[in-house]
Amino acid sequence: MPDVIVIGAGISGAATALELAAEGVEVLLLDRYGPAAMASGWTLAGVRQSGRHPAELPLARAVVAQWATLADRLDGPTHYIRQGNLRLARTAEEVAVIRRLVAEQSAAGLDLRFLPDAASVCAVAPAVAETVLAGSFCPTDGHADPVATVESFVRAAERLGAVLRFGEAAEAIEVADGRVIGVRTASGVIPAGRVVLAAGLFGNALLAPLGLSVPIEVPMVTALRSEPAPPQLAPVIGVANADCAGRQEADGRWRVTSGRETWPGALAEEDGRPVMRPSAASIAETVIRFGAVVPAFRAARIERVWAGLIDLTPDGLPVLDAPDAVRGLVIGMGFSGHGFCLGPVTGRILADLAQGRTPALPIVPFRLDRFAGWNAPRAVPTLHG
Hints:
This protein has helices at 11-22, 39-42, 57-74, 92-107, 118-124, 146-159, 203-207, 280-293, 343-354; strands spanning 4-7, 27-31, 46-47, 85-89, 113-115, 134-138, 142-143, 163-166, 170-176, 179-185, 188-191, 194-197, 220-226, 236-239, 244-248, 254-258, 268-270, 273-275, 302-309, 319-321, 329-333. It is 26% helix and 25% strand. By secondary structure, it is of the alpha+beta class. It folds into two domains: 4-64 and 146-215 and 314-371, FAD/NAD(P)-binding domain, CATH 3.50.50; 85-139 and 219-309, D-Amino Acid Oxidase, subunit A, domain 2 (D-Amino Acid Oxidase, Chain A, domain 2, 2-Layer Sandwich). The model has no long low-confidence stretch (mean pLDDT 95). Strand 20 and strand 21 (329-333) form a beta hairpin.
């Protein structure tokens, strides 16, 4: 009988399992597919502070301090590279967006620099087209390999005693007298007094019978990965209106994503993993948009194409909470397309909540009850990944 069941083996769930196992807690990590099968594997995998909502910035700044030594802690690869995040302006309207971003985040203490013209942008990243008008650059941002990182978290947790059950879906969180008593799967009920729900898009199906819900909409993002190419781009590239983003991985492969698109609602499985296929029009548009700001990408030979889903909350912020309505339940959901970077601190926060402790980092803005009577406009697009 585990002390805690963690549902979901993305980066948040895997990091939570590791934190709990490191404390000697008997923890079971449960996932219907396996590590990084959905959002954590689909992501651009930026490790950034820039462009964050003010509520997320303390978490992002804390976690970026950990990424440089994370592979040593996990005794496994992350392929983390810290060579900055460059966000570009292509129109006068986007220049105003970038100026405002730099002013706000600089005032919050982030080292974010305004690059006022194409020459200053190209000095940071010569591969960028000279047609851009301006940009912002955060030198302490970077990127990592999402699948390798999550696998490293999972194996580190396993070495510390975490039990892994993959290929088995949670069907219900069992509750008696307002308290968690276990998780039901097709194999039966697994008794446990605490559950951390980090199941992404599948989370609300488990919350609904408990009278709870995280409000999310589910847009789609097209992603392209090329064959290895010569190194031409060091930072992660984004744009002011978030309609494309990209980077080169440690092995030289380009990893490029579109902006948010409408998801037609089809989720298939292939070799025991979820798959979605973007349209030809979306693939072409992604190539054109990113190729316009980084012309070298146009010569890339595309190796793989996929689509990913974003669990987008109304304010673009996650839910990190232990709701009073169900004792023993902890929720980590709604990361809105930019939760990968936060994974190491998210795991610490969710583990603290599961242990009945107050996390060291501020999480009041991430409580579930902030959506009670919500009537504010939805969050504007932000850089995902």
